[in-house]
Amino acid sequence: MAKGPTMGYDDILLLDSEYVWHPYSAMGKKLPVFAVESAKGVRLRLADGRELIDGMSSWWCAIHGYNHPQMNEAIKVQLQKMSHVMFGGLTHQPAVMLAEKLVALTPAALKNVFFSDSGSVSVEVAMKMAIQYWHDKGQPGKQHLLTIRSGYHGDTFGAMSVCDPVTGMHSLFTEVLTPQYFVDAPTCRYGESCQDSDLAQMRTCLAQNSQNIAAVILEPVVQGAGGMRFYSADYLQQVRKLCTQHRVLLILDEIATGFGRTGRMFACEHAGVVPDIMCLGKALTGGYLTLAATLTTTEICNTISSGTPGVFMHGPTFMANPLACSVAVSSIDLLLSTPWQEAIREIEKILADGLDECRQLAGVTDVRVLGAIGVVELDHAVDMQTIQQQFVAEGVWIRPFGRLIYLMPPYVIDEADLRTLTGAVVNIVKKQSA
Ligand SMILES: Cc1ncc(COP(=O)(O)O)c(C=O)c1O
């Protein structure tokens, strides 16, 4: 068998099937996988020469598309200096530059940045910050989190504990997860105002349990992997008020929504809400190297720093990796140097137009679009074995889950490619209902 750079498509797949575990998949009875040889712009080139238009931005990350000359250059320049140094006792320009940019971009109250390696870890960090803050405020009983159902915050144990117990994909581990407080997700959709009934459970839970609750954690406006739901910004405003009233922190997980995806730089801006702690990841990286950040206020930072033990108890080995930070700086510069709001508005229009036909199709229960996210919800779970092959045969990379077929393309996609994506969704949904 050919090895190394000359490996053929089938060779790669053979080794893959023998050794490699993929996300949310099984060894042995694997779903089909496709070997990618390179990627440029919005196109993934498979090792057998086929090209696919990317509708996923590699799970929200690759907002500028792939193999971008400016971000490539940022990595190359940094590589000549150092690829990594420990962050304990050392610092470097890429980390401080990135921290300064993040503080400038996010709501003004967020002043301090804790870097980590992935979105899940940044959620762990946020949860620990909230608990340690209350410990240092003399309320050590505030050890739990409150969240809404249909949420998703990651795959590590702390993050899993605040994912939807059913759709969050972690029901298997219920016995070992920290019990948290859950209330129903609001039924008021994006654009609607929130009804009293939407808030009733949250209000009651906070009134009865705030002495045990360190923070409410939410994905603002868009719930991602737990159901791709878009909820009312008004609801988020009301939750902010309840948190303040009950002396509970608000953690906003902007890992999926951050950096323009919903049409605003951060989804909390739809509601004009400022969290006490914010998690960033995914698009932060420009799709290059894994990195996440947890931002917080001076009040939380100072309380933890002056409490006992007087330090924040976390410190990943690859914290603030210089290559990842320098490419993240480049990605933010790139975003800010382009008319990204216009690009997202245009994508939103085309997604809404292109997916509209799905509303008439059998088996479709909802079509929704917000910013550069388009969702077609079905009344049945798709068969991944066939649907993935069908999308690839259409020349697109779209990866549904459960009852959801969704698009979140790189912001640089042009109209023709975007219409190919929406056209493929329409075609495949028609085949599903045929
Ligand atoms: C809202 C949200 N939070 C956290 C995570 C976890 O991030 P990561 O996969 O980088 O650990 C995800 C990933 O999908 C997410 O969408």
Description:
This protein is an alpha/beta fold and 434 residues long. Helix content is 37%, strand content 17%. The protein is built from 13 helices and 16 strands. It has a seven-stranded mixed β-sheet, with helices on both faces. A four-stranded mixed β-sheet has the order 1-2-3-15. A three-stranded antiparallel β-sheet has the order 13-14-16, with helices on one face. Strand 1 and strand 2 form a beta hairpin. Helix 3 runs antiparallel to helix 10. The mean pLDDT is 95. The site of pyridoxal-5'-phosphate has 14 residues, from helix 5. Pyridoxal-5'-phosphate (PLP) binds next to helix 5.
Distance between the termini: 42 Å
What class do helices, strands and sheet pairing give? alpha/beta
Based on Cα principal axes, name the global outline.
globular
The ligands found in this model are: pyridoxal-5'-phosphate
Rg measurement, Å: 22 Å
Average predicted confidence as pLDDT: 95
Question: Main attributes?
Answer:
434 residues; alpha/beta; four-stranded mixed β-sheet; 13 helices; 37% helix; 17% strand; binds pyridoxal-5'-phosphate
Quick recap:
It is built from 13 helices and 16 strands. It is α/β, with parallel strands linked by helices and 434 residues long. The radius of gyration is 22 Å and the shape is globular.
Write the layout of secondary structure elements.
Blueprint: H1 9-19, E1 36-40, E2 43-46, E3 51-54, H2 57-60, H3 69-81, H4 93-105, E4 110-116, H5 119-136, E5 144-148, H6 157-161, E6 181-183, H7 196-209, E7 213-218, E8 222-223, E9 229-230, H8 233-245, E10 249-253, E11 277-280, E12 292-297, H9 298-306, H10 322-336, H11 340-355, E13 364-370, E14 373-378, H12 384-393, E15 396-397, E16 404-407, H13 415-433
Parallel strand pairs: 3-15, 5-6, 5-7, 7-10, 10-11
Antiparallel strand pairs: 1-2, 2-3, 4-12, 8-9, 11-12, 13-14, 14-16
Helix pairs in contact: 3-10, 4-10, 5-9, 7-8, 11-13
Bound molecules: pyridoxal-5'-phosphate (PLP).
Pyridoxal-5'-phosphate binds at residues 118-120, 123, 152-154, 219, 224-225, 253, 255-256, 281.
